[in-house]
């Protein structure tokens, strides 16, 4: 199929393009990925692995405390477009486009006794791999790429569901450790094969 | 094929054989007799605003390119190359002046017309061997547009869309015509759920009864400024034309007060007053009801709600969502969920409304999460042999002798069309299932066939027996043109 795209290519990040991203930090990566024995990379990797254990255990209160107050947590809708179209996400539409308040509402909901979708709870396993770390112009902020595969099993006999995604995170150093300040989740399917996103990636 | 008349009769009595929510034979019948002729929503004009814009949408297994051609006309083209059947367009959306088949390179304009045929002379003997002129990708047999909503039907003799919508148009305007600008649609989010498609359509059509239970958590976390779930019983269910829905009862006040109460800013209220009929305004301003969820038979639904979305603010922000329950099998549905917003609204309103949508509905919505859990579980349970012994009672609102628990509102009490009642009931679910039964009972007529490159249109019976040439119609170029223009 030959396509003359009318959509202008843009150099703006997806977080910048989001109608709900005005509050988000804008720090970008610089230079090459860090060596795997670089102290910053080791800290970033450890942070992601620790986070995956929190998410597997659905310890969402603890997870929330690892997020920066200006967090932008974005999972765009992916679309299949012709090669060269210049975009692979649905314009103006995401699966999740969250700030601290909306994330806190999601977490609060799970803490009620009436979040039926997670009662009984899913068995979750977040597999984190392909981690690489970049410096930014800010010495206290780093950008971390990772791949995540989420395995979710619900009920006794239901088939399990999986989601594969790439993530770009902005981590910020604080007095008490690293905080997640921005996450963009590029899910690898245009049709999600999971009954809902009552999970975090 | 199993005789389903017993099942259909039970459904008409409001008794629901539980297996209808997970039954392969019934699903085959739905494909053959319902989705082959009903009007089905595929896209909104705002998704293809410019010449050349297209989206690809499905009706069961059939893929259609919904495109806007160079003249600005919206087309629905069966996404299959006329040569050897390759899928012509494999992207979901984009902008193209023409589509070139990757297999042998036939190319089509974005209005469907075949314009490029490699080695036409050498391979086919030119126009004499194969008339390139007048060939076009197969258009959807019927196409209709209302408020920019594009519907197609696989039945060339489908009744006009507006007749099909009937009095439901009155309610459709609340969702899709809040100003002369109409809506713009964003999305869809798409995800697959292991649930039968009918369950969601029924739920959105009239299930106010599930709200206090299923959605208790959303109230508890302060998404609503009051315990709204409990208030559902004060609202109404209405059925009009081929669709129906639910409303909330609004507190006392003027039209403006009541629209402000659900979060509409004054500029939008002014445009609504200029756009809607007196009766449409009176349902809100006089009768005190605000539309909530709705379904249009068979598988399109709507949501309108007004949550709090900002910390430390009691303000609520309305959002509208449109969705389609696209059947995949008897136990799987692809949900397509769009965010809709008035085109003339301010950017600030659009952002907050979008935020409200994402928090409540769609793939990540907090309302939706608990709904789907129920529907998946219901579908699972409906698969077995015990479910065949169970006739579920879907008669809420009816007494055993057939009388009504609550009588419909009179013309003095209610300004809108259709049949409207206060309180919990399952009239609307029964309306949907009765239409479903009517379709499943009625055999389909043979569909016309197009012989590519030949001039006759032939009819075959559904069984596939090779029937004779019933109708030799106009040459394809004219026939195709007629369909396209008639669209
Ligand atoms: S199948 Fe499309 S050109 Fe041959
Ligand atoms: Fe619900």
Give the arrangement of secondary structure elements.
The complex is a heterodimer of chains A (201) and B (487).
Chain A: H1 14-17, E1 29-30, H2 39-56, H3 60-64, E2 67-78, E3 89-98, H4 100-111, E4 123-136, E5 141-153, E6 161-174, E7 177-187
Parallel strand pairs in A: 2-7
Antiparallel strand pairs in A: 1-4, 2-3, 4-5, 5-6, 6-7
Chain B: H1 5-12, E1 15-17, H2 24-33, E2 40-44, E3 53-59, E4 62-68, E5 74-78, E6 93-95, E7 98-100, E8 107-109, E9 114-116, H3 120-124, H4 126-129, E10 142-146, E11 149-153, H5 161-165, H6 168-176, E12 183-193, H7 197-206, H8 211-214, H9 216-220, E13 236-240, E14 243-249, H10 255-261, H11 266-275, H12 278-285, E15 289-296, E16 300-305, E17 319-329, E18 332-342, H13 347-360, H14 366-381, E19 391-393, E20 419-422, H15 427-441, E21 448-450, E22 457-459, H16 476-486
Antiparallel strand pairs in B: 1-19, 2-11, 3-4, 3-6, 4-5, 7-8, 8-9, 10-11, 12-18, 13-14, 13-20, 14-15, 15-16, 16-17, 17-18, 21-22
Helix pairs in contact in B: 1-15, 2-15, 7-15, 10-12
The structure holds FE2/S2 (inorganic) cluster (FES) and fe (ii) ion.
Residues 203, 210, 214-215, 367, 371 of chain B line the site of fe (ii) ion.
Strand order of the largest sheet of chain B: 12-18-17-16-15-14-13-20
Task: Indicate the CATH class of chain A.
Answer: Alpha Beta
Q: Report, as a whole number of angstroms, the end-to-end distance of chain A.
A: 34 Å
Bound molecules: FE2/S2 (inorganic) cluster, fe (ii) ion
Q: Please report which band the strand proportion of chain B falls in: under 5%, 5-15%, 15-25%, 25-35%, 35-45% or over 45%.
A: 15-25%
Oligomeric state of the chains present here: heterodimer
């Amino acid at each position: 199929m030959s396509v003359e795209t009318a959509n202008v290519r843009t150099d703006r990040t997806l977080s910048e393009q989001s109608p709900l991203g005005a509050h988000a930090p804008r720090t970008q990566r610089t230079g090459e990925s860090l060596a795997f024995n670089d102290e910053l990379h080791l800290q970033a990797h450890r942070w992601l692995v620790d986070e995956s254990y929190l998410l597997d255990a659905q310890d969402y209160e603890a997870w929330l405390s690892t997020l920066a107050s200006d967090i932008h947590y974005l999972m765009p809708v992916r679309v299949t477009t012709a090669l060269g179209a210049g975009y692979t996400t649905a314009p103006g539409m995401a699966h999740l486009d969250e700030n601290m308040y909306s994330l806190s509402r999601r977490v609060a909901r799970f803490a009620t006794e009436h979040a039926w979708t997670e009662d009984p709870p899913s068995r979750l396993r977040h597999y984190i791999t392909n981690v690489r770390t970049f410096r930014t112009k800010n010495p206290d902020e780093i950008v971390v790429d990772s791949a995540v595969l989420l395995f979710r099993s619900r009920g006794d006999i239901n088939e399990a569901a999986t989601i594969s995604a790439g993530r770009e995170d902005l981590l910020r150093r604080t007095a008490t450790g690293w905080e997640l300040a921005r996450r963009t989740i590029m899910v690898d399917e245009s049709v999600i094969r999971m009954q809902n996103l009552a999970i975090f990636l | 094929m199993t005789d389903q008349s017993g099942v259909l009769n039970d459904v008409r009595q409001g008794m629901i054989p539980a297996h209808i929510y997970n039954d392969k034979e019934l699903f085959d019948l739905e494909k053959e007799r319902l989705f082959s002729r009903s009007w089905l929503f595929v896209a909104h004009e705002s998704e293809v605003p410019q010449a050349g814009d297209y989206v690809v949408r499905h009706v069961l297994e059939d893929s259609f390119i919904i495109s806007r051609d160079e003249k600005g006309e919206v087309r629905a083209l069966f996404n299959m190359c006329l040569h050897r059947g390759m899928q012509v367009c494999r992207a979901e959306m984009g902008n193209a002046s023409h589509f070139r088949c990757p297999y042998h390179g036939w190319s089509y304009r974005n209005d469907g017309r075949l314009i490029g045929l490699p080695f036409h002379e050498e391979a086919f003997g030119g126009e004499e061997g194969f008339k390139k002129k007048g060939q076009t990708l197969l258009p959807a047999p019927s196409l209709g547009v209302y408020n920019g909503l594009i519907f197609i039907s696989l039945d060339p003799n489908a009744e006009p869309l507006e007749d099909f919508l009937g009095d439901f148009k009155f309610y459709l305007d609340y969702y899709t015509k809040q100003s002369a600008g109409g809506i713009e649609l964003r999305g869809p989010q798409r995800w697959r759920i292991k649930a039968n498609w009918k369950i969601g359509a029924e739920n959105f059509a009239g299930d106010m009864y599930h709200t206090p239970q299923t959605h208790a958590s959303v109230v508890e976390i302060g998404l609503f400024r009051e315990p709204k779930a409990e208030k559902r019983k004060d609202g109404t269910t209405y059925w009009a034309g081929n669709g129906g829905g639910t409303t909330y009862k609004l507190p006392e006040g003027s039209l403006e007060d009541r629209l402000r109460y659900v979060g509409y800013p004054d500029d939008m209220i002014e445009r609504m007053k200029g756009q809607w009929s007196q009766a449409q305004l009176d349902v809100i301003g006089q009768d005190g009801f605000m539309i909530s969820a709705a379904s249009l038979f068979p598988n399109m639904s709507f949501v309108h709600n007004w949550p709090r979305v900002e910390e430390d603010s009691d303000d609520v922000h309305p959002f509208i969502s449109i969705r389609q329950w696209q059947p995949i099998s008897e136990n799987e549905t692809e949900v397509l969920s769009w965010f809709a917003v008035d085109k003339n609204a301010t950017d600030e309103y659009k952002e907050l409304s979008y935020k409200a949508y994402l928090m409540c509905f769609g793939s990540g919505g907090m309302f939706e999460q608990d709904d789907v859990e129920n529907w998946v579980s219901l579908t699972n349970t409906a698969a077995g042999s015990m479910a065949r012994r169970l006739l579920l009672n879907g008669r809420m609102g009816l007494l055993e002798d057939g009388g009504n628990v609550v009588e419909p509102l009179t013309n003095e009490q209610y300004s809108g069309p259709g049949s409207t009642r206060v309180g919990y009931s399952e009239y609307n679910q029964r309306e949907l299932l009765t239409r479903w039964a009517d379709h499943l009972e009625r055999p389909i007529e043979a569909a016309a066939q197009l012989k590519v490159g030949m001039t006759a249109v032939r009819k075959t019976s559904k069984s596939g027996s090779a029937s004779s040439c019933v109708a030799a119609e106009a040459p394809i170029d004219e026939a195709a043109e007629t369909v396209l223009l008639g669209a």
